[in-house]
Here is the input.
Amino acid sequence: MTLKGRNIVSIGDLSRAEIELIFRCAERFAAQPRAQTHLGRGFQLATLFFEPSTRTRLSFESAMNRLGGAVLTVADGAQSSVSKGETLSDTARIVSGYADVIVLRHPAEGAARVAADAAGVPVINGGDGAHEHPTQTLCDLYTLGIECGRIEGLTVTLYGDLKYGRTVHSLAYGLALFGATIIFAPADPALAPPAYVLERLRDEYGVEPRWWDPNDGTPMPASDALYLTRVQKERFSGNAGLREYPRIDKATLRRWGVGEQTVLLHPLPRAGELDPELDSETRSAYFRQAAYGVPVRMATIALILGIAEEEWASGWGARRTSPPPVPAASPEEPQETSFRAESQRCANANCISNREGAVEPRFKRVADTALRCYWCDTLVPAATPATVAPASVAPAIVPPLTDAVIAETHALGAAQ
Ligand code: NCD
Here is the structure.
């Protein structure tokens, strides 16, 4: 098993065994964070951030510095040549000539896949719009493993803005991969997870989440952890949807019947929804969760660069004089199972294929009547069979969706 040269665009790009390898490696780094500076010597990490960030960018940069590598950073994408009209694909190609691995954060869903398909070096998704944030999930799962002693068999309630919260989408897939029970608790019905998340949970992981309505007076189902999130105000278009939700403090948790043993997680930043009076409680793990970002990202970078394996095999004692060359990967072709559908566009206005003219719409078939956007996963009804490319490039048949999800995809298409 090797992660060398791999992209991490979705948490679904990693198997459970690969995530466990990252965690074993992270444990080593957590134990001796200042003893690894020989590993990454000669390597460069580029952080390209087109959206604000504190934790993700700085913990990636701290991780690379602690590995002894160097960091190139674009902290404000508006300062890059994208503001002159350069495409994301060109930017990714150019930066591939300067760095050995790229971390990208971008406001459009699907941007990381575009960059990964174009880049000649591995791309790590540091958050693409409301879509996914896979390395936050690595931190979340790692924290659960430490706080609860295991991940498999846990019950985790995910609360808040589950529609636009990208950390929640990736975490739901990650929990499903580890055999945990997921309880979705949207702060408002308008903030329920998108249909594509439910479809992927069902189709790829065989998981049916449970639901809890935090507003109907019923107690929260017994949970090992409660994952809180802020409302993603910046992703609301127009006035649609709820902008704020109630502050969560000790009284709220008592009212919800949240047990004293339930671990409280939050990807942070908080925006008023999480009362600081909870910070000093043992069950509040969110600052520890943020700090684990460094060893987890050290492990992720080291495994992707292929600089951890040798160290691992030699009992972490070897000293390297020069880094092994990373073979220049040729730009990845879009996966075989995706195809172009004539005159069909993604229904998500914020999909990179609708935001950047150079990105062509691509789809995967998920049922006879529905397609999934290759870039952002949004489900769209297939207009007519004639719009779909020949069967030779069509994906394998997958189990049909439930009527409810298909109805939702039609509603989505109609709302376009
Ligand atoms: C999250 C993000 O950017 O999606 N922050 C993070 O990376 N820890 C959560 C958020 O912004 O709400």
Q: What stands out?
A: The pocket of N-carbamoyl-L-aspartate is lined by residues 55-56, 127, 133, 136, 166-167, 230, 267-268 (CB under 6 Å). Confidence is low (pLDDT under 50) at residues 318-327, 385-416. The first strand starts at residue 44 and ends at 49. The first helix runs from residue 16 to 31.
